[in-house]
Amino acid sequence: MSQQARFWGKFLRGWGATFEGIGKGMQGDLAYTETMGKHRTMAAFQAAKPAVSSTFVAPCTTIIGDVNAAAGSSIWYGAVLRGDVNSIKVGANSSIGDRTVVHSASSAGSVAGKAAPTTIGDNVQVGALAILHACTIGNGASIGNAAQVLDGAVVGAGAVVEAGAMVAPGKSVPAGEVWGGVPAAFIRKVSPDEAAAVELAAAETSDLAKVHATESNKSWEQLEDDKAAAYDASIRDPDYNSEFYGEFQPKVKI
Q1: Which of 108, 121, 163, 194 could form a disulfide with 91 if both were Cys (CB 3.0 to 4.6 A apart)?
Q2: Strand ranges across the sheet with 160-161
Q3: 193 by DSSP, 3-state: which?
């Protein structure tokens, strides 16, 4: 690019910014500024691209590289799924909680010295702030808030890892058992009530994910309409009924 082209390009961009400032000043409180960020929800890594069919992926989520998330799954705010050194798979109708980190392992970075993916089955509930690293989570399992499941660990189908627990590398949590503590150890069998509660939580999370997906996909105009409706509702008399017109009573002269 020539020096002259660079000069005029810079001049025109500056000129446009000047007019933008003048226009905003004239609009006052009605002015709206579109903000642009560098954050990318999904990014390829060394030619490996995420394949995501999730019902909901939060805008501030980060999904990198060889990550596959099946239909009906949901990946919540601030979660990071980093498939750079190996693959990550999230099954159907599974939920990855807010600010959870999911990673895999290379042979150099693994505790066991062996490359390993992270595989999360169907109908799995992963709580907020959890860490899943190069592990396998069976169908219908529940991982509590801030729990850790580390390299080579296997959590069986329908098992429950309690909040804050740490499943040590290479450890296996049998199907249908509740484990807790640091390091995690067997506590009891999963009761029918606990199993029903996990199933109910999965259904509720799935429904909530659809609501969040709808809200996240709204246009600027729709968001402004929602804001206006919320303001109108906050100042309106609770007895107001827009569908009530009253009944006309003609005046009668005596």
Answers
A1: 121
A2: 56-57, 74-75, 95-96, 125-126, 142-143, 160-161, 177-180, 185-189
A3: helix
For 164, the token pair is 């804050």
Q: What is the pLDDT of residues 25-74, one digit of tens each?
A: 888 777 777 666 667 888 999 889 999 988 899 999 999 999 999 999 99
Domain boundaries, the chain: 42-194
Residue recorded with tokens 């996990």: 198
Is residue 51 classed as helix, strand or coil in its secondary structure? strand
CATH number of 42-194: 2.160.10.10
Q: How many whole angstroms separate alpha carbon 165 and alpha carbon 144?
A: 8
Question: Full-prediction pTM beyond 0.85?
Answer: no
Do residues 182 and 198 make contact, with C-beta atoms less than 8 angstroms apart? no
